[in-house]
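User: Can you recover a sequence for this backbone? Please restate the input before giving your answer.

Assistant: Of course. Working from this structure:
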């Protein structure tokens, strides 16, 4: 939205725990308190259930601002998405939806992996709001063309679809001086005599960390995997390690826990391979950051990942397939020349195709198309 604000007047509404207005350049940010009817009983509910209850009180803000177009950037929680969509429709304001998180939310809403009794609840409170909002959108800004079948199944006409991908943060394209890089990664004790793998993401089932840990036990090449991301529960992490067949203090993996932004950039520039065995993802930013850091990528062939990772920039495997992941990692870890060539081509691909400036230009072009359609009626 900062890039969009360079091309047209822009204001952004964010659900928050406080009311505050902030200006960032030409972008006006309005933080507004959100309501949640589940808060009185939140202590007895799973966090994911409580999250579903948040709703924005956006009507007064929209009535005051009267924007030409509204762009909804996050479909979660679906009830909040539907609230804003219905408000826009009532005020006669066309809206656009970006599909950030659509693949994950679509799979979740269909109850994949959920107990049978939960599926009607997911249908009513996740899928129906998502489908209603998508069908009412003037345009859907897909992060990749791989989402088209999902939206077609929701009943969204093809002519309303356009591809507006994520961009990479230029911060991760900046090379660090060797001394600074080594200082930032010193606590991770990266081995000098074997390749290092890097995983970045939540330690949740959908990110496939369990698949990576199992793959480490199957690999022929010697390597170490750096598992980045906050540890939610030490006990949960220990159970995950034990279930994979690794020892509690196995030298083949190291968990960083919370990382600063500076440490993450330094790790991208210090390891040899980025691995991301996700079971469901729309267009992961961490893959773009890794490719922008000249890393080859081994990832799952799901969601929009094939739009990011091509055959000359990495290797894609079926989700949940630990032997296939191990074989792909063995291939990449066994050839420094292959890693260098894939990493170089990956950086070129990111720089040429995944820019926030280009994405903003594509988004503003959608807004202009919508307004032209509206004026032609």
């Amino acid at each position: 939205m900062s890039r969009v604000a360079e091309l047209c007047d822009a204001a952004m509404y964010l659900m928050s725990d406080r009311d505050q207005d902030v200006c960032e350049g030409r972008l006006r940010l309005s933080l507004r308190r959100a309501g949640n009817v589940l808060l009185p009983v939140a202590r007895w509910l799973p966090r994911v259930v409580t999250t579903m209850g948040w709703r924005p009180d956006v009507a007064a803000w929209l009535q005051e601002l009267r924007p030409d177009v509204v762009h909804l950037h996050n479909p979660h929680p679906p009830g909040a998405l539907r609230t804003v969509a219905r408000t826009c429709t009532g005020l006669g304001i066309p809206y656009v939806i970006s599909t950030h998180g659509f693949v994950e939310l679509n799979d979740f809403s269909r109850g994949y992996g959920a107990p049978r009794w939960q599926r009607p609840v997911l249908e009513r409170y996740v899928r129906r709001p998502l489908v209603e909002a998508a069908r009412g959108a003037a345009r859907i800004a897909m992060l990749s063309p791989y989402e088209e079948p999902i939206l077609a199944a929701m009943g969204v006409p093809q002519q309303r679809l356009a591809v507006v991908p994520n961009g990479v943060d230029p911060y991760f394209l900046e090379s660090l001086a060797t001394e600074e890089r080594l200082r930032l990664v010193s606590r991770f004790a990266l081995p000098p005599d074997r390749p290092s793998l890097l995983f970045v993401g939540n330690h949740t089932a959908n990110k496939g960390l369990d698949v990576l840990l199992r793959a480490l036990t199957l690999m022929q090449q010697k390597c170490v995997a750096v598992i980045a991301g906050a540890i939610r529960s030490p006990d949960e992490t220990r159970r995950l390690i034990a279930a994979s067949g690794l020892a509690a203090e196995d030298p083949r993996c190291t968990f960083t826990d919370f990382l600063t932004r500076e440490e993450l950039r330094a790790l991208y520039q210090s390891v040899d391979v980025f691995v991301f065995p996700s079971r469901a993802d729309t267009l992961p930013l961490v893959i773009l950051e890794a490719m922008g850091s000249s890393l080859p990528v081994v990832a799952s062939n799901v969601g929009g990942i094939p739009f990011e990772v091509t055959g000359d920039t990495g290797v894609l495997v079926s989700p949940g397939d630990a032997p296939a992941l191990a074989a792909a990692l063995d291939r990449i870890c066994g050839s420094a020349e292959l890693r260098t060539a894939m990493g170089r081509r990956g950086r070129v691909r990111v720089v040429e195709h995944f820019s926030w400036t280009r994405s903003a230009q594509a988004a503003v072009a959608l807004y202009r198309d919508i307004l032209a359609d509206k004026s032609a009626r």
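That completes the design. Residues 196 and 272 are 5 Å apart (CA to CA).
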